[in-house]
């Protein structure tokens, strides 16, 4: 893949193991409204979707949903960052990829992304970060990935996108960007990897 110019990543489940953090975050919101903790299906949904979509999924009744939105906007995400686990070898990999490649993020996270990158000292290692706040239609719509293509003025085949969910697969397919599935063999992808350092082999071929 010698014509690749941009390497783009999803955040949750790729750059970080965020299962514990996301579970704690949404359970705190549910607890506020005397609701039981998340089920397996609820967790799977919230892990992939935007916070607004997730709140709507967790609180079907309109008044509760609106109250939950107000509460979550008043919450600080700081207490939950400590539960995030950075993927092994991420920082050295990003440093090695630059300056040969531009590095981007396309995530369905919203206002927490900047804080997460800052806390882990990653903000200088990404050339572009596209969150759900930066687009009209988040993943699985291709708009976040198309925004990356437009920003760097490249064609779809000149980028790869690394993700771990069906939404990532669908977004990459719609944008016609080669997709790399991370730790999820159930997804249809050009490549499957179990660790991020395997990207170096893919990019050399």
Task: Tell me about this structure.
- The protein has 205 residues and is of the alpha/beta class.
- It folds into two domains: 6-17 and 85-204, 3-Layer(aba) Sandwich (Rossmann fold); 19-81.
- It is built from ten helices and eight strands.
- Helix 3 packs across helix 4 (62-74).
- The model has no long low-confidence stretch (mean pLDDT 95).
Give the topology.
Layout: E1 6-9, E2 16-17, H1 19-32, H2 40-48, H3 51-58, H4 62-74, H5 78-81, E3 85-86, H6 90-97, E4 102-106, H7 113-119, E5 128-130, H8 143-152, E6 159-163, H9 166-175, E7 179-182, E8 191-193, H10 199-204
Parallel strand pairs: 1-4, 1-6, 4-5, 6-7, 7-8
Antiparallel strand pairs: 2-3
Helix pairs in contact: 3-4
Rounded mean pLDDT is: 95
- The strand count comes to 8
> Per the principal axes of the C-alpha atoms, what is the gross shape?
globular
* CATH H-level superfamily title of the largest domain: HAD superfamily/HAD-like
How helical, in percent, are the residues?
40-55%
CATH domain class of the largest domain: Alpha Beta
Beta content comes to: 5-15%
Number of helices: 10
Structural class: alpha/beta
Instruction: List unreliable stretches of 5+ residues.
Output: none
How far the N terminus sits from the C terminus, by CA atoms, comes to 5 Å
H/E element string? EEHHHHHEHEHEHEHEEH
Q: Which CATH-level-2 architecture of the largest domain?
A: 3-Layer(aba) Sandwich
Q: Biggest sheet: strands, sense, closure?
A: 6 strands, parallel
Radius of gyration: 17 Å
Under CATH, the topology of the largest domain can be stated as: Rossmann fold
């Amino acid at each position: 893949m010698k014509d690749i110019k941009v390497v783009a990543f999803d955040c949750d489940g790729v750059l970080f193991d965020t299962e514990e953090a996301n579970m704690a975050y949404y359970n705190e919101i549910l607890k506020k409204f005397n609701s039981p903790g998340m089920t397996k299906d609820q967790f799977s949904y919230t892990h992939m979707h935007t916070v607004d979509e997730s709140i709507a999924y967790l609180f079907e009744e309109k008044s509760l949903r609106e109250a939950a939105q107000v509460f979550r906007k008043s919450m600080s995400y700081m207490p939950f960052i400590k539960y995030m686990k950075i993927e092994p070898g991420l920082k050295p990999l990003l440093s090695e990829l630059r300056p040969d490649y531009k590095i981007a993020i396309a995530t369905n996270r919203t206002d927490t992304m900047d804080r997460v990158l800052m806390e882990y000292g990653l903000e200088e290692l990404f050339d572009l970060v596209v969150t759900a706040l930066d687009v009209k239609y988040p993943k699985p719509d291709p708009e976040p990935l198309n925004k990356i293509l437009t920003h760097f003025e490249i064609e779809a085949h000149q980028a790869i996108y690394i993700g771990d969910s069906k939404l990532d697969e669908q977004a990459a397919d719609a944008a016609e960007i080669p997709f790399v599935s991370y730790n999820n063999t159930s997804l249809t992808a050009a490549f499957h990897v179990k660790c991020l350092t395997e990207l170096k082999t893919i990019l050399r071929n």
